[in-house]
């Protein structure tokens, strides 16, 4: 049994700075050294291993086991999900459905700024709410590329758009996890988040158009912007306050997409914007309603299956004592499972950390997507089994390097968590006292940058945020909410997100370029969240 050491140097600031070195190295690797993502992630893992073992005194066998668990999680469930999502997209393209999808979008508007709002913002948010785990970035970025956006630009825009919906991914799991860590109900935390997230959500479409076409673009599309931003933010807020986090993305995204589509039947901008190098405006083709419904079928089949997978009754089938529990394989990691103790205030009491590799063959999100792929293939008359298999082969060929990158990142993330590196950073930030609300979102940002997941971030730092809130007389829900919102801003540039986005648009190896395009927006949005959280802390 090994107890985590949070201050090996006896000076919390120094210990935190050393713990930050892998993160700083990764940032430099992408921005200064311009390494490919897979190399940057690999070297970062090596740096973190050295720091964990030689400075934070983590036993070597435990460090190796933590890395192995991280790499395993990179393959399952994350790699599995991403490959299945891209396979679904390729099936849709191969079957000819995307020609109809593209035409149906063009039928709403030929203006690519408005197509960005429909697909990059609203549809992206819908997929985040329904599936999460990289699916919205992978599919939305690929769709925008097919619509004529340059690949890396499409990836960047989808990453930024995800800032509006990332807190409620996969049916609200990040908020539910944060609430559990703070001993509060998901509805209560959701109601606290309403002070921040709808405001961010309202601003994101404006930011997207500003990036694409400057203030001129905002002026020309202002009515549509107000429609999509207003409908999304208002319905998101209402859902958060009255129903909780589970449907906050899904309801607002579907409504904003539908309302915008209806609005655009009556209004179009005077100037039709097309990206440089985008295909010329196509002659409008007419498809029947049935043809359009069939074309979009991969995505509402996906939604239906994932909705079933998210139902408590379905999950209960695989829980302990459930009739299908035998389909879930649990592997307790040697030298690691309950062999490391997490100490207060990171945990409420001394707590051995579970280290279990879970292979949920049927209940995994990836399997839900696989079923959507199979149903899409069966319902399509234009694709054979051989062609479907070729699409899978192509997806694996495109994604093996990004998945390897994710494995290295997850290895680093697990090592940072089990070795106490993340906690050392968090404890140092918590020492800021009354200024902590100002840096509270930064802690969440660091958590997501390391883990690539808002869920994991809240599990990692949620209790620390709650404990610090009680010490400084602030509201626990506010700081856990700040942890969540700040974390979402790191999703724009987390190594996992960057790897998935570049792979989705066929630009694997250009992670450094995408990172540099996106990083300033991550910091700008984080700064806004920090200032706003500090202001809120003075009043609630």
UniProtKB/TrEMBL annotation:
Q: Which organism is it from?
A: Bacillus australimaris
Xref: Pfam families: Lactate_perm (PF02652)
Q: What InterPro entries does UniProt report for this protein, alphabetically?
A: Lactate_perm (IPR003804)
Indicate where this protein is primarily found: membrane
Give the record's keywords alphabetically.
Cell membrane, Membrane, Transmembrane, Transmembrane helix, Transport
GO molecular function terms noted in the UniProt entry: lactate transmembrane transporter activity
User: Under which name does UniProt file this protein?
Assistant: L-lactate permease
| One GO location term (cellular component) | plasma membrane
Query: At the top level of its lineage, which domain of life is listed?
Result: Bacteria
Q: Where in the cell is it found?
A: Cell membrane
Q: Which family does it belong to?
A: Belongs to the lactate permease family.
Instruction: Give TM regions.
Output: 12-32, 38-56, 63-89, 116-144, 156-181, 193-212, 224-241, 247-264, 299-320, 361-379, 399-429, 435-455, 521-539
Q: Does the keyword Membrane apply?
A: yes
Membrane topology is: Multi-pass membrane protein
Role according to the record: Uptake of L-lactate across the membrane. Can also transport D-lactate and glycolate.
């Amino acid at each position: 049994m090994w107890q985590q050491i949070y201050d090996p140097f006896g000076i919390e600031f120094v210990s935190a700075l050393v713990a930050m070195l892998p993160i700083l190295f990764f940032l430099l690797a992408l921005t200064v050294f311009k390494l490919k993502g897979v190399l940057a992630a690999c070297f970062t893992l090596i740096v973190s291993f050295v720091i964990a073992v030689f400075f934070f005194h983590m036993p070597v066998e435990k460090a190796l086991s933590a890395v192995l668990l991280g790499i395993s999680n990179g393959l399952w469930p994350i790699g599995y999900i991403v490959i299945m999502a891209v396979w679904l997209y390729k099936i849709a393209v191969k079957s000819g459905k995307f020609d109809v999808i593209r035409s149906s979008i063009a039928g709403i508007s030929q203006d690519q700024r408005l197509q960005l709002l429909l697909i990059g913002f609203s549809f992206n948010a819908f997929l985040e709410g329904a599936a999460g785990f990289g699916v919205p970035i992978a599919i939305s970025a690929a769709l925008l590329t097919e619509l004529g956006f340059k690949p890396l630009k499409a990836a960047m825009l989808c990453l930024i758009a995800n800032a509006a919906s990332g807190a409620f991914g996969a049916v609200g799991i990040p908020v539910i996890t944060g609430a559990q860590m703070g001993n509060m109900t998901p509805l209560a935390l959701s109601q606290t988040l309403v002070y921040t997230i709808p405001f961010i959500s309202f601003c994101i479409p404006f930011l997207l158009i500003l990036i694409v076409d400057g203030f001129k673009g905002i002026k020309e599309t202002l009515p549509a912007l107000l429609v999509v931003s207003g409908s999304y933010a208002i319905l998101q807020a209402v859902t958060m306050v009255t129903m909780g986090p589970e449907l906050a993305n899904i309801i607002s995204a579907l409504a904003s997409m539908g309302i915008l589509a209806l609005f655009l039947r009556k209004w179009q901008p005077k100037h039709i914007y097309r990206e440089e190098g985008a295909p010329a405006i196509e002659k409008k083709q007419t498809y029947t309603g049935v043809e359009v419904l069939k074309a979009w079928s991969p995505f509402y089949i996906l939604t239906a299956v994932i909705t079933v997978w998210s139902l408590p009754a379905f999950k209960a089938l695989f829980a302990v004592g459930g009739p299908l529990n035998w389909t879930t394989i649990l592997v307790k990691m040697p030298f690691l499972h309950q062999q490391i103790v997490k100490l207060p205030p990171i945990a409420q009491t001394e707590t051995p950390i579970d280290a279990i590799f879970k292979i949920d063959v049927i209940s995994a999100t990836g399997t839900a997507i696989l079923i959507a792929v199979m149903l899409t293939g069966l319902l399509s008359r234009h694709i054979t089994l051989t062609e479907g298999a070729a699409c899978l082969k192509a997806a694996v060929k495109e994604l093996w390097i990004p998945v390897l990158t994710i494995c290295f990142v997850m290895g680093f993330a697990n090592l940072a968590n089990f070795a106490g590196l993340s906690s050392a950073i968090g404890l140092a930030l918590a020492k800021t006292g009354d200024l902590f609300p100002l840096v509270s979102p930064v802690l969440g940002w660091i958590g997501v940058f390391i883990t690539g997941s808002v869920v994991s971030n809240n599990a990692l730092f949620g209790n620390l945020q709650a404990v610090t809130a009680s010490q400084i007389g602030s509201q626990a829900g506010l700081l856990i909410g700040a942890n969540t919102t700040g974390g979402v801003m790191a999703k724009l540039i987390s190594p996992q997100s960057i790897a998935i986005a570049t792979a989705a648009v066929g630009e694997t190896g250009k992670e450094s370029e995408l990172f540099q395009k996106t990083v300033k927006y991550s910091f700008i949005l984080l700064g806004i969240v920090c200032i706003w959280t500090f202001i809120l802390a003075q009043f609630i």
